[in-house]
Design a protein that fits this description.
The complex is a heterodimer of chains A (113) and B (116).
Chain A: E1 4-7, E2 10-14, E3 19-25, E4 30-38, E5 45-50, E6 56-59, E7 62-67, E8 72-77, E9 86-94, E10 102-103, E11 107-112
Parallel strand pairs in A: 2-11
Antiparallel strand pairs in A: 1-3, 3-8, 4-5, 4-9, 6-7, 7-8, 9-10, 9-11
Chain B: E1 4-7, E2 10-13, E3 19-25, E4 31-37, E5 43-51, E6 54-57, E7 64-66, E8 76-78, E9 87-94, E10 106-107, E11 111-115
Parallel strand pairs in B: 2-11
Antiparallel strand pairs in B: 1-3, 3-8, 4-5, 4-9, 5-6, 7-8, 9-10, 9-11
Classes of the chains: A mainly beta (113), B mainly beta (116).
């Protein structure tokens, strides 16, 4: 019940296309869902995050869509660029867990020029 | 602000050796975390700390120890290194607040450890 399942494991998208990465969770106590971006040789960095009281959050070309009833959330990257090539992680945490994050396994995204 | 710094960047250990991975943050964050990252497995929490003098186990604590004597430093100790501890280790820190609903963990650059 503590797992966060992320798919796909890898994704290749043409420049200008839409990249979509999906995550699913079981624990309904989760109340915070961030996405992190990691470039090779670097630590992950927060990209965007959402709380379950909203169904969508947009920051520039990045959008999180959240479906509370289905217990799923996804990251959409519009107009994908080669500089977006990285590994993306979804995560979740719940109130009272000292902000501990449960991480998805990651998606390696490659944007082809 | 240097953020979160980790040393060393790379290390090769022999089975049975010990070492300490150093982590320092200059953001006055109360929360600090140690993760290991294995290929295709995401990040697994080893230990975390909610403040100086307070530490607790995460998901995969066996074979590791931590201490937190100051707000800034959170070293990770490997005793009797084993090949299963070959991984990339990340230290992270965060404040206790959720600003605009967001609690951001700030990561260091990582330490790549190989145990042979």
């Amino acid at each position: 019940q503590q797992q966060v399942k992320q798919s796909p494991q890898s994704l290749i998208v043409q420049k200008g296309g839409i990249s979509i990465i999906n995550c699913a969770y079981e624990n309904t106590a989760f109340d915070y869902f961030p996405w992190y971006q990691q470039f090779p040789g670097k630590g992950p960095a927060l990209l965007i995050a959402i709380r379950p009281d909203v169904s969508e959050k947009k920051e520039g070309r990045f959008t999180i869509s959240f479906n509370k009833s289905a217990k799923q959330f996804s990251l959409h990257i519009m107009d994908s660029q080669p500089g977006d090539s990285a590994t993306y992680f979804c995560a979740a945490s719940r109130v009272g867990s000292n902000y501990q994050l449960i991480w998805g396994a990651g998606t390696k995204l490659i944007i082809k020029p | 602000n240097a953020g979160v710094t980790q040393t060393p960047k790379f290390r090769i250990l022999k089975i049975g050796q010990s070492m300490t991975l150093q982590c320092t943050q200059d953001m006055n964050h109360n929360y600090m975390y140690w993760y290991r990252q294995d290929p295709g497995m995401g990040l697994k929490l080893i230990y975390y700390s909610v403040g100086a003098g307070i530490t607790d186990k995460g998901e995969v604590p066996n074979g590791y120890n931590v201490s937190r004597s100051t707000t800034e430093d959170f070293p990770l100790r490997l005793e009797l290194a084993a090949p299963s501890q070959t991984s990339v280790y990340f230290c992270a820190s965060s404040s206790t607040e959720r600003l605009a609903g967001v609690n951001e963990q700030f990561f260091g650059p990582g330490t790549r450890l190989t145990v042979l």
